[in-house]
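Review this:
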Amino acid sequence: MYGFSLLPALFGKGLTLAGVAGAVLFVQWERKTASPLMNMNLFIQNATFTFSNLAALIHYSATFAVTFLLSLYLQYIKGFFPPACRPDPCFTARGHGDFFSFGRPAF
């Protein structure tokens, strides 16, 4: 991930390539070893497992993006002081709960 932040530079490209190569080597090693840390055959043989993990990845990525962009919006557009813009897990959970309960309080 650090390589992506330096990508225009040659060092960033090298770090990104090293990270991809490390991930490929990890998958190959885990498929060959007798007692793997992570059973890669679950992803290959079980489509339900694979797509449920992909759905969870998309969901958590979107939740992170909303929380991160909300703090930037509150700072740069609304002019709040940065410590007041830290994402509060209770506020975020309550906001999602209120949204999905159609306006009725979730608590």
The chain has two domains: 1-45, 47-107. Residues 1-45 form one domain.
